[in-house]
Amino acid sequence: MGRPPGEPGRVAYLYLLPAFVLYAAFLLYPIGRAVQISLYDWDGLTLGRWAGLDNYTAILSDERLRAGFGHALVLIVFYAVIPLAIGLTLAAILNHAKVRGLGFFRTVVFLPQVVAMVVVAVAWRRVYAPDGTLNALLGALGLDGLTRGWLGDHTFALPAVGVVGTWFESGLVTVLLLAGMSRVPMELYEAARLDGAGAVREFFAVTLPSVRGEIAVALTLTVIAALRTFDLVYVTTRGGPGDSTSVPSFEVYHRAFGLGQVGSAAAIGVTLTVVIFAISFAINRLADKGTT
Amino acid sequence: MIMGRSPRGPRTFAVLAAGVLALAATACAPGSSAPPAPSPAKTAASAVRTDAASLGDVTLTVWDQEVRGGQAAQMKQLNAAFEAKYPNIKLKRVSRSFDDLNTTLRLALSGNEPPDVVEANNGRSSMGQFVKAGQLLPLDAYADAYGWKTRYPDSVLRYSRYSADGKVFGEGNLYGLPQVGEVVGVFYNRAKLTKLGLEPPKTWADFQAALEKAKAGGEVPMQLGNLDKWPAIHVFGTVQGRHVPAGQISTLAFGRKGASWTTPENVKAAEELVGWVDKGYFEPGFNGQGYDPAWQAFGKGKGVFLIAGTWLLADLEKALGKDLGFMLPPGAAAGAPPVTTGGTGLPFAITAKSPHPDAAAAYIDFITNADAMKVLTSTGNLPVADTAQQSVQAGPQQDVFTAFGAATKDDGLVPYLDYATPTFADTLGAALQDLLAKKATPKEFLDTLEKDYKTFAESNG
């Protein structure tokens, strides 16, 4: 194929250069450096000692860390799967019912997203306290048997943290899906109706396939949020009780700044990055496949 | 579709990955710009100068964490007095909260122009690592010149001592000097005790009887909020001090070889603490209650006892006034020598790269001398030395001064248990949450601690 006249293709790369320099300086270089540090046994102060892949094998054999990755997977359910279910239902209803004050509802649903996570965490810490709102509510309903120190309970601490994530992410997912659904032409719904489809059938036949792209975006964002959860755990439980809510990101911080095991922290960080990359890649592959 | 794949996606990615790897391979090893260890020659006693006024014009950069109430007040007052006395020395003060200081100090010290004087946390993962990296100056020569070793009890100075390689904690060179003391003891609500017909208990048996009576009287016997993981460490340390000899606790807590967590005495201590849970001495859900809400609840009159450190004195006194009392954990018999967890505030250290170590030492001496201790007292702090000489009003502050004086006089202070190994704060905090929630038996609990302690003590040599 011939080149368009007067436009040497290689010059185009020159236009990319400024952005690439920034990208390289603030993203590629730090990533490379993190990978490098993860291959050393380094306390952040003295000369590092080459450790090869020791830090990585240690991650695999460290039961506590494996548990941490397990907790992150549980959080995916609360951060991504449940919000997706809630978001789909809510968006379908809002989109269809032609409710008055749609803008108002959209704002309310989206509100958690604009509050800083630390603030959210402090607020929920009060809700879950033994003398907090949740227990007061249960008490008022006569369910005193269910009251407990939620964040200090070995069984319920992780789900309790997860529910905060659900509350936080549902709004984002809903708004994303709502935007997608509003693009679906009315004719499609009319056609479905004429073919005798009920509301449920219509949802699965028309709405769901049309918002596949938005679902992929929502899942990517929320899954990443779940896997890199840090502030929520840092403020609410610090990984406790015992180790029942420890997550990889918290370990990265803890090892680098608390224990001075910078090499090990970098190895966890790199592993986490790879896991996040793999999962988002898989999600997008699946979404792509569906459309072609 | 987002993140759509262009035909050359994989190749671009491969090129990028190769670039990243090349970058990683060519960059120099992390920490290769770290400073070399300082020559020990600097520490000879003859070389130090204590005539601060004749040191010429000097600017000292000081990093501290004295940001709250009385702490900030004393620092401001002492710094002003220092600059007035030595007009040739200027102070450049940087103060940060404890957490911020902890995370930024590591970077600051590895730079080429670190601050001259820094407040460094005593523990192995802070001061210990800085010593190992040769970033702090041994202060023994200054200690001799200024007489610090005679003014400060040895049980206090050892919290700032490390071997030159940073491996042994609690003995060796002196790397810092603290201003204030800390001791963990029992706060009590005097009004509630009176209502229950009780006196402040004199023996450990009396104390447990008082807890029982408080329970029977419908009070919360002991306030505890353990969501933050570490608060129960102080409660366990208090119980442990009644059962385990002080020498063994020190060996365990400094992470030295030669002791064990799995002794019958430690088992007894763990069992007694679990017994308190069984008898309902703590409020239900205490593992899910925050530390601050818990002591605040005590301040509002909920709870008869609270095991905590003297750092809560100012706030609790404000809340409870004359109803607040403080005592050292009572011993097996009345008048038994005191044993309790305690230590010091963060010690002030001099960085190895500071060009003005003499001026820095003069500053540290100034903020810790006898006059400074008076300033500390008048601003509501607990001075670490000369505690008995201070005159304070009767009441909770006097209780605290008496308690700290008694504990240091008889060398009754045992170190914080979480000093033991770099990971021990976490290990112990998590293990205690498990123990108190009955997810671990006392034996399993102690096995967990033993494993962390033994692994570290063996590898540390």
TrEMBL record, chain A:
- Lineage top rank: taxon: Bacteria
Determine if Transmembrane helix is one of this entry's keywords.
yes
Transmembrane stretches in the record are 12-32, 69-92, 104-124, 156-179, 215-236, 256-283
Segments forming domain ABC transmembrane type-1: 69-283
Any single GO BP term: transmembrane transport
Pfam families according to UniProt: BPD_transp_1
Q: Which InterPro entries match?
A: MetI-like, MetI-like_sf, UgpAE/MalFG_permease
Coarsely, its chief localization is membrane
Question: What are the protein's UniProt keywords?
Answer: Cell membrane, Membrane, Transmembrane, Transmembrane helix, Transport
GO CC terms for this protein? plasma membrane
Name its cellular compartments. Answer: Cell membrane
Q: How does it sit in the membrane?
A: Multi-pass membrane protein
- Check the record and name the PANTHER family matching this protein: BLL4140 PROTEIN, DIACETYLCHITOBIOSE UPTAKE SYSTEM PERMEASE PROTEIN DASB
Give the UniProt family note.
Answer: Belongs to the binding-protein-dependent transport system permease family.
Write the protein's name: Sugar ABC transporter permease
Q: Which species is this UniProt entry from?
A: Nonomuraea rhodomycinica
